[in-house]
Design brief:
CATH superfamily: Aldolase class I
Number of domains: 1
CATH architecture: Alpha-Beta Barrel
Strand order of the largest sheet: 1-8-7-6-5-4-3-2
GO molecular function: hydroxymethylglutaryl-CoA lyase activity; metal ion binding
Helix content: 25-40%
CATH topology: TIM Barrel
Family: Belongs to the HMG-CoA lyase family.
Order of helices and strands: EHEHEHEHHEHEHEHEHHH
Protein name: Hydroxymethylglutaryl-CoA lyase
Keywords: Lyase, Metal-binding
Shape: globular
GO biological process, one term: L-leucine catabolic process
Length: 328
């Protein structure tokens, strides 16, 4: 029988340049955002949510998406994700070096109408249209089911409610579906329940999770995602993607009291210690990654929310081999 705590491969998705910045009081100019992306690529990030193609009057921190994408490092090993909400956003993304679009679909009408001024049903229609545009431009498509763990306006969200939206989202046949704990209320039990929804549905090719650490459960949730329960079946594709933001910056501007994402360097430290294999270039230099978080904090005039930027990496010393005859 398989080990109930057997890990799968984890793919780190760096969302600092988008979700990390969109809720900050101080907007960063295009060149600073490009420099952030350049530093992240230099530390091994290979999948980066770089920009958001939304209205700059609503989210000024994300203004200049096209300008940012015109200046980012062009590396065939790096995939750039652009967040979009509709066909128009996908059309904008298609004119840039973005290789993926991430389309957000809230699972509650209360959040969807406040965030996107549309019902969930209407957002599913918009997602289908945006997906068509993206595929026509040769881009991959991710669908993120927002507030899948709880909604700031309507309260707890049942697994059944998420399952209903998931089934309809799967009809779009995206390359990946993500469950987002938008306001940081989730616990590991919910992670396991949501992951189990995707098992056995061939239309769901890959799973991704987006955790916030608002109530100090984000890292526990990440461990739960990285150690799927084999009794429910195989994880689609054998890989779980986990979002994280360098320095732990981030939050949703439309979710009251939302705080930061889980920090990329803290998550990398945790997964390394758990022995979880990482896709791509493997485990990053954690201290070097933390320095990027410190640099970003200086640009934002704000302190990082992660802890590794202060504590630093820790590698336990390797014990010396026992010598024959040494007393124990």
């Amino acid at each position: 029988m398989e080990n109930a705590h057997m890990s799968t491969t984890v793919e780190l998705v760096e969302v600092g340049p988008r979700d990390g910045l969109q809720n900050e009081k101080k907007p960063l100019d295009v060149d600073t955002r490009v420099e952030l992306i350049r530093r992240l690529v230099g530390q091994g990030a290979r999948r980066i949510e770089a920009v958001s193609f939304v209205r700059p009057d609503l989210v000024p921190q994300m203004a200049g998406a096209e300008e940012v994408m015109a200046k980012v490092p062009q590396d065939p090993e790096v995939s750039y994700i652009g967040l979009v909400l509709n066909r128009r956003g996908a059309e904008r993304a298609a004119q840039t070096p973005c290789t993926e679009v991430n389309i957000v679909i809230p699972v509650t009408d209360s959040f969807s109408t406040r965030n996107q001024n549309l019902t969930v049903d209407a957002m599913l229609d918009h997602a289908a249209a945006a997906s068509q545009v993206a595929r026509g431009a040769g881009m991959r498509v991710s669908l993120t089911l927002a507030v899948a763990f709880g909604c700031p306006f309507s309260g707890p969200v049942s697994t059944g409610q998420v399952a209903d939206v998931l089934l309809r989202a799967a009809e779009i046949e995206p390359d990946e579906i993500a469950f987002a704990d938008t306001i940081g209320v989730g616990v590991p039990r919910q992670v396991r329940e949501l992951a189990a929804l995707a098992v056995g549905d061939d239309r769901i090719r890959k799973l991704r999770f987006h955790f916030h650490n608002t109530r100090n459960t984000g890292y526990a949730n990440a461990v739960a995602a990285a150690h799927p329960d084999p009794s429910t079946g195989a994880v689609p594709g054998g890989v779980i993607a986990l979002d994280a933001s360098v320095g732990g910056f981030g939050g949703c501007p439309f979710a009251p009291a939302a705080t930061g994402n889980i920090a990329t360097e803290d998550l990398a430290y945790l997964l390394r210690g758990e022995g979880v294999p990482l896709a791509g270039n493997g485990h990053p230099d954690i201290d070097a990654l933390a320095r990027v978080g410190t640099w970003l904090g200086e640009q934002l005039d704000n302190s990082p929310q992660g802890l590794l930027v202060r504590a630093g990496d820790f590698t336990p010393p390797v014990p010396a081999p026992d010598k024959e005859g040494t007393e124990k």
